[in-house]
């Protein structure tokens, strides 16, 4: 009966692009492709790529084994337009990027703008507890805070929010992780240190 079962398994076929392919071959090719992906993923560790947005005027480095995505703002420049994930399928850590062109904005304008975005994302920030610090390549003045965000499938999202108050507008970098660790903190710190505002026409 066991031999018969083996024969039945070998005879199973799947349809791939309109052609019947033995299931064994399909699984084997998938396993090889996944192995190659893992090897490439590991090789890119400790290496960095650069995401440059000329549309929104910034540049930032991110781990080479992460995935960067440029998103066209659907509700103006103050809405989400950039996302960088640590993997394709189920990201454990990621960064969101927002910006708002504004001539010589104040800290108050920056806090109100960022609070609106966070509230729309079902979050909450106590701006009285925010601290000022210098961030990025050119030591930009910024408001920063760290807090716990929404819970998904029993997991808590830890979020660090950085609102850069520049001469030409506001930039918000949102660092998010479901797995807080020294490695995640090291990555986020490198990304924040690499942030640079570009001089481009907006």
Describe this structure in words.
- The protein is an alpha+beta fold.
- Helices cover 29% and strands 39% of the residues.
- A hairpin with a 4-residue loop joins strand 8 and strand 9.
- The mean pLDDT is 77.
What is the fold's blueprint, element by element?
Blueprint: H1 2-11, E1 13-16, E2 19-22, H2 23-43, E3 48-53, E4 58-63, E5 67-70, E6 82-85, E7 93-101, H3 107-120, E8 131-135, E9 140-152, E10 155-166, E11 169-177, H4 182-194, E12 196-197
Antiparallel strand pairs: 1-2, 3-4, 4-12, 5-6, 6-7, 7-11, 8-9, 9-10, 10-11
The helix-and-strand class reads alpha+beta
The CATH topology of the largest domain turns out to be Jelly Rolls
Domain module tally: 2
Distance between the termini: 71 Å
The radius of gyration computed from the alpha-carbon positions, rounded to a whole number of angstroms, is 22 Å
Global morphology: elongated
How many helix segments? 4
For the record, the CATH class of the largest domain is Mainly Beta
Task: Tell me the helix content.
Answer: 25-40%
Q: How would you spell out the order of helices and strands?
A: HEEHEEEEEHEEEEHE
According to DSSP, the number of beta strands is 12
Name the poorly predicted regions. none
Mean pLDDT level: 77
- Order of strands across the biggest sheet? 5-6-7-11-10-9-8
Q: From the 3D coordinates, which CATH architecture of the largest domain would you assign?
A: Sandwich
